[in-house]
Amino acid sequence: MSHSLNEVGALARKAARGAGMSWGLAEDAARAIRWLEARGLAGAAALAAYLVWRDRGGMVAPLEVHSGLWRGMDGPLCPIAVGAYLSDSAAAGLPGESTLVSLRKPLLIVPFAAWAAEELGRDIKLECGDEDVWLGRGGDAYCAGFAEIDEADVSLRQEEVPGDAMRREVTTRCAAERGPLEVLEGFAGRTYAPATEASRIAGAGAGTSDND
Amino acid sequence: MEESRSEKIARRAPEEVVRLARLGSFHQSRLSFMRILLRRLKSEKWRFETPRFDIDEKGVGVAVYTAHGPERSYSLIAFAHDLPPEMRSDRVIATAWDATFTLFDGIPGSADIARLRENVPKQEAGRVSERELSVSRANRSVRLWEHVVDRLAAGQQPDAEKVAEVGYLMRTTAVYGSGKLGAADREATQTRPEFQAPFQIEMLSVYLTRAFVMDLVEHMARKRAPDTAVGLAPKLRRRFGIGNSTGLGMAPFLINHPILLNNWIAAREEALARVRSKEQAGSKELDQLRGLVRRAGEHARIWRSDHPVQLRKLAELRADIKALAEHLHSFDTSVRLPWNRLYEWADGALSLEGQEQLVSLLMELYPEDVDGLACCMAADESLGERIEGKMSAARLTALCEDFYGWALETDWHAPEAQARIWYVSQEKLEPRLGERAGEEDLEAYEQPLCPGRDVARMYSDLRKTEGNVAAFLMAHPEHRHIARRVQIAARFPYAEIRDNTIAADMLPIDLLRAKLAFFGACHFDPRSDRWVRINMYRDAPFPHELASADPDGWTLPEVQM
């Protein structure tokens, strides 16, 4: 049974917020998960794993950027916050090559790199160990890796997509499995206020009979 | 100085239009989504049939209503239930209904219906697939349903006064589209011409639902008394619409979809500007407007509500329509820009209800200038997702000042300014509105539905910042949501409501009214400050009548001239 992309996007937004991100970053997490799932990439599972890691005490650090080196002041980098900065700042230009040091769940930065490629009007190659992903300037993704990587250094280069690279097809459904979605639902639940009797009546404005 | 011969009257200013009080006074118009749908069904000669109607004497079973368009067909699958009265509730916490529905993409086979029978009656507790475009449910109006079945079974017509008083036999309590419960996302069907305008799937579903409900009530009368039962007289039959109860769950929609709100309002404002820019008008248009004003008067006369706010607004509207009729009695259309003059008069002489009623009526005069704007009302909301990070912090500061001046002047420390808090309850996962002071620990659950306050918060950090927005937001992720919004507001003039959406005196029903007026709803009847009942398609031709009926002329009641 598949899910709609709107469903998984709405769930990711709430889950990211429930796990402590700001609403604005949670919105970007949702866009990223939608983008990944639409290309058959396991975005929901990656976000679930990342939020669980954070919830168990994993700390990400504020970003410092020095001559192509992106690193956390005293710990690993958040793929959503750093991804947001990457796509926000791409229009102002990026160095030809950068290294993102100790990036958590590198799969989650892939959509942001795709948006950066669009802003730049240049293709981008992400490389991590022996896995790589290309993002075309038109917003397409080519090949895919990173799904199993929890934390690694990622290099980001402006490099043409090779002619034989395989483009990821875009679908309208999300094939995420039940497990990660349940994890996300757990985090999403933290955005819901426990009901009180007063709120039950006043909050929704009911209290009168509507059986007429 | 010689006057220009083709003066274009500008659209009204956003700070005048996008205010809660004015949004809460909107009326249906030619650009309402129901009317856009019926015009298309008519002009494209859609065909309708009921390939299945298996409902037993208890009112339990399934029916299928199929609409055939030029390229594709869509089927409303209706499941009818025998609901114990104590389970009947309009609230979202309900778990059973008199009828449940899904709009199917195509013509369902028996396997589809078997699958949906296991899921659609459960609504939120069920799952549907990308073959389904919407999921909805409806409850009977007990008082009217019993009356109509009784009368028809006895071979009599129902009491017209009773019909007018309630206006519908069933009211929908939710119509879910766009990916909810596993249905197809809007993005999956938005390139189809029939679904290009907003909410066409939902409007089609409700239109077919109305046909089903009327067939069902006649069917139940026949089951009760096969020898004596009669059908509804066609004229009286049309007086039934579909009711709808809309609660707080829908109120944040307009805040959460700023580009869509912009496009809806921009289309309507452009329509008004085109009419106001007409250099001349003749007696034909004036007579037509006088007739429409009379009909609007009748509409206002039969509009019922017990809510004090709506009662006051209705009194104003009735007085406005009287004043408008008198003004038109001696109105001179031979002047330049006659409708602009009329609008300017109304701006000073009428309440917001009357002004907005006039806007809708003026649009009726010029279908050729108005109807085509329907295609501009959909929105590519991805246009607002990306943040322009290279914008300077100084520029973002200036945008806050330009577009949110009212918010920067508000004293957010005053208790009434932040009296309310939007949150989502654990119990039913629906938006609620609480009192910030009264309820403990709600702050942590606050939804981002108060742009004015959030701009003011960002502004105080932003003013101290140099560099660009990307760097500012890296350091201040808490402002990321509102920074994105400000950039949207700067590009889409009508995107942002220029009012405090968490103020002590804020009325959520104003948000509901605006959205439902764009749907094409009438007879707004607030049941509290946060939920409202409406009527949809009242007086509209039924699918089988559409080929020989006016798809637009039904929205105001006929009056004897």
How would you describe the overall organization of this protein?
The complex is a heterodimer of chains A (212) and B (561). Chain A is of the alpha+beta class and 212 residues long. Chain A has one domain (3-190). Chain A has helices spanning 5-18, 23-38, 43-55, 79-89, 110-120, 178-188, 197-202; strands spanning 3-4, 63-66, 69-72, 97-104, 124-128, 131-135, 141-142, 151-158, 173-174, 192-193. Chain A is globular. The mean pLDDT of chain A is 91. Chain B is an alpha+beta fold. The model of chain B has no long low-confidence stretch (mean pLDDT 94). Chain B has helices spanning 14-17, 20-23, 33-43, 110-117, 142-153, 160-166, 186-189, 200-224, 234-237, 253-256, 258-276, 283-302, 308-329, 338-349, 352-364, 367-370, 393-403, 405-409, 451-462, 469-475, 480-491, 508-519; strands spanning 47-55, 61-68, 73-80, 99-105, 132-140, 168-177, 241-246, 420-425, 431-435, 522-526, 532-536. The interface between A and B is large, with 49 and 69 residues. Strand 10 of chain A pairs parallel with strand 8 (420-425) of chain B.
Which sheet architecture does the biggest sheet of chain B show?
Answer: 9 strands, mixed
Tell me the quaternary state: heterodimer
> What's the overall geometry of chain A?
globular
| Strand content range of chain B | 5-15%
Write down the Rg of chain A. Answer: 19 Å
Bulk shape of chain B: globular
From the structure above, extract its key features.
heterodimer, A: 212 residues, alpha+beta, seven-stranded mixed β-sheet, 7 helices, 10 strands, 39% helix, 20% strand, B: 561 residues, 3 domains, nine-stranded mixed β-sheet, 11 strands, 14% strand
